[in-house]
């Protein structure tokens, strides 16, 4: 047993040493970046808390924030929840950032209610908190919000689909995200407004929740097409859902029958519009959200002026089949500006 | 306990001392790793050893830390509980919803009742029907998770009473913030440590995990012991649920999706054998703190969260490898 515990100790230390070596080199590289791009003696520290580490949208948000921070001579510490809905993870992230002495926190709140007390504590200790991408409920739980106006995005999407159908009566399928989600509800309601339909209208032939997941969307669409073979229009909560639905539509040989509208504006999504998989997508600008958020915290650090209110970071509809009455950009523009 | 037991399960005071030795030895590795990690990170990050940071570290460990005690008990019997996080989440929703209607004390009692029942269901399927714990709890995890979603209507419920969030309240010792949740966690560890070390039931748990056949032969009621362990794990999940309401005053059916895995990580790094019969709750405490310190320290040092996951994974595999080596050597 003695030998064993000795061995245990040695291995534990070894593992830690490896981890620390990895961290040492990483930290060194980051310090180098800072000194190269900034003249300030102590760069403004800004925390970024996203819903997860791995969703491409949040990866883009993080990259854009780091880029903007480098320009402003600030430093971004990026943390995240472990999965969509990880309130505990986001609260821990906020606490740790406050402990590290950040000037401001940019956050894409997981749940509009679950993390409000942590946000309040952070604000009470003098940290400015800015919501990115998703607003909190109530919206004034944070100092300011930089996000897509998702209702407007939905209206754009619906207007384009309706115009594309022309005189045909809609037989609409809706692939929603997560029931009760703030963003999901805004987009859904906006789309129906753009289509000129009321909730529960008979033109809505089918509806299914997909959590924005490509595989679930494909399964849902396969099943819905069994029930609604004559569907001619499709709402999707995001581009992965649209891509999944297209697989099902193609397998059923109904590509020319169904018009697909989507939202997001990722480069993959725009590419799918170019290939004709998605009819049109509404682009959002996470890069702008992050950059504006970083700037607002740097401004606060300089002048003490806190950002306020809701800032719409803009939406543009991307399609290669424009319709009259809807301002749109083509996929060439889209590929240049995807998630800008 | 009157019958002579096998080598690993002591009956006499002398053998009791030997048992203590066995339980204590695997503690050295995790404890050493913890101390080294704390020292190293205190050099890397200026404020790592600050009272504010250490308090945060503990506050953030409370829910998983409490749940991990239940997981330790189950793993000591040679089982595993993949449903433990889902039971706790169900507990938070019962606490919030029933509490809103019938008052906070009733809500708390109802949550404890539901969690114990859930634990006993697992225990009955394992002990009485003799089904493998992995499969049983994989199944009940799915059932509990879906039941929680149905019960919550996919909505969150805010805590409406001070009793529900009591474990999140705090007082200060100097500049160190102590939440009642941190105290509750240590109380749970001490109680279960005492139960394992000083009571006959504790000895039975080690015996059932070490060699169920032999345990039965010497007259230990293995089924009863298993039911007891799973029931206690359910009760502990209810305490964790209470602590979770204190941490974030909202019952959210989507929360703690990785709690099951995090408790297993803590138990394994803490040196408790996945094969049952060997380990201790304080090992689990150290195991969990090692993961927390690693995360907190690496975050302060600016290391990407994905590298932190790799580090945690490597630790788990190293710990299991050591356990397997130790078993081979002793057999």
TrEMBL record, chain A:
Residues 1-31 form the signal peptide. It is found in: Cell envelope. Its main location: other. Keywords: Signal. The keyword Oxidoreductase does not apply. Residues 46-304 form the Periplasmic binding protein domain. It holds the Pfam family Peripla_BP_4. Belongs to the bacterial solute-binding protein 2 family. This is Fructose transport system substrate-binding protein.
UniProtKB/TrEMBL annotation, chain B:
CDD domains: TM_PBP1_transp_AraH_like. Keywords: Cell membrane, Membrane, Transmembrane, Transmembrane helix. It is found in: Cell membrane. The chain crosses the membrane at residues 27-44, 64-93, 105-128, 134-152, 173-196, 227-245, 266-294, 306-326. It comes from the Bacteria. InterPro entries: ABC_transp_permease. It holds the Pfam family BPD_transp_2. It is a multi-pass membrane protein. PANTHER family: ABC TRANSPORTER PERMEASE PROTEIN YPHD-RELATED-RELATED, RIBOSE IMPORT PERMEASE PROTEIN RBSC. This is Fructose transport system permease protein. It comes from Paeniglutamicibacter sulfureus.
